[in-house]
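Task: encode each sequence below as structure tokens.

Item 1
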Amino acid sequence: MLITRHADAVSVLADTRYVPPPVRQDAPSGTLAWLRSQVSRFSTGETHTERRRLVTERLAALDPAALRQAATAETLKRDGDWPDVPAAVLGAALGVTDDKRLTGAVAAAAAGYLSGEAGPEADAAVAELVELLSGAGDPIPGITILLQAHAATTALIANALTHAEPGDDTDDLLHETLRHDPPLKASRRLDRQTGEEITIDLVAANRDPAVFDRPERFDVSRGPTPHLTFGSGVRPCPASAHALALAAGVLAAILRPEDTR
């Protein structure tokens, strides 16, 4: 079933009957398939609750304002070469000092993180991330945060840059990009009662005329809106503030560097 209306999407996302499609549970340790079986995103019930708690605890130690400042400084330091900045800044905040090794592994592992499309390179990258983040205890929450930052935050920044106009407020630009041009275009759920797979078209739901005025128009003056890009209901993104901070920091350095020096 394909869902395109905002109200229907909200209803599904608020109902525990609908869960993420199952992922492989018997993969060798240290592989991408193994990682997907260990994270909160692809788990359900009490397992999801506990894994989400661990991620939330790790995020609570990361100050979004500090991440924003660091993202601006790092982007300026790299003369605007920004794609690795979100992972590098988060990695540093998580205690990883070898940013080149980290960002290379994050990029390789993130490529198949959502889809499950694995290969030797992705498996090796996951093993490397486990090694890099094991010094602070359980590496899984940190790896989860890093892969989400690379997969979603970098796409958010790239999408925002395609819509940016001179003088745009960075925060307003991001809010409207999240609504109009979300980095993740669809979200899937499985109906536990019927086995039917549900696909939520986030682009369509975020442009539902029943909720958004002139929905096809990209309008930075809208400010925050009830878009569904960060999820809703029982499984909202726990790192929305951190993602926005990283994206805003990068965009500030690219679009308004004169205000950041």
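Item 2
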Amino acid sequence: MYNHLEPTLVIALLYLEINIVSIILVALVHYKTSGLTKMVSQRNFTMAIDAQMVFFVSDTLFAMMFFGLFPQVPALEMLAKEVYFLSTSLLCFFWFLYFEHIQESPFVRSRRRVWLSSVPVWISGILLFINLFTGICFRVDEAGAYERGPAFIVLYLLSYPYVFFTCIRAFTRLFKRQYYSQRKTLIKLVLFPIAPAAAGLIQFFAPELPVACAALSIATLIIYMDWTEEMISVDPLTHLNNRKMIDYYYEQWKDNKEDNAALYLLMVDANRFKSINDTYGHLEGDKALIRIADAMRLALRGHNRRFNIARYGGDEFVILIWDENEVAIENLKARISRTLHRLNKEAGSPYELSVCIGSEKATQDISLKDLIELADEHLYAEKDKLR
């Protein structure tokens, strides 16, 4: 397609095409998420995308003048590069706030800490203003040639630590038991900066390669897809599946005629949960529910067949599990109870936290509603024994 063009022009056109696609992709994500929720975390997500689009546009404008595809105007080149670095600092800052919210970090609950964390952004802004008169970070001469200054690296050092700091926090939390319920989210946060960081490093040494915008837009799309998936299928408190997913997995099992494994449904219900809420408050009640969810996850760790755990509603949970026989299911129930007792003790909880579990084996001719009712009957038989 570009065989008859000069190599520089080919690179310029490729740069332009990739950046335009990146801008459109991120603009679509912005459009789909704008106004969807008033949560602070989502506002930070939106502002990160706003800064990202400014970053893409300024990068594209500078590159087109640099390659000669647009007329070279030194003042405009300088302005584009100033905006490029300021938007870099802002997008890193807003991604940092968004990731901290996602991790439910106490850091972002303090307005004072959030303002303090914005100091590198303000320093970047001041440094870029000084750069207009001194060229200490970079300059564009009268011929339109771009040169880096002695303090150029400082602009990166003021921006990139935001994302790396929050990703390091996510990495350390991966190995802490109390964050087990957030494990999938933490892994994604750890992996998020790898592609953009690698692309930024490549473009640092080879500015003519159009990789930064492409890597950032793809990473943003992945975060958006993950967020929408959680909105649809995940309980926001426990990070378990919601009851809609149980319907989906059960119908999938019924449609899969070749799956000969026995399927069991377990109804799990917290004992005396209302008294926990009434005595210690709903915040402590939420912590108890998260502890139950973690106990089920840990008890099922290493299970060599498929399983799905969901919050059914309130203090009730459902487990769909493919297993060998009733004995294995009874062993699982005991394992969940033991694990919950241990987690509750480790948390220093002032109350006893336990569950009753009813189970029923599924058959192809039984509906999910009837299966749940049968498991519920066994559950309340267990509760009667407890009383």
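Check on item 2: The chain has two domains: 7-233, 241-386. The mean pLDDT is 84.
End of task.
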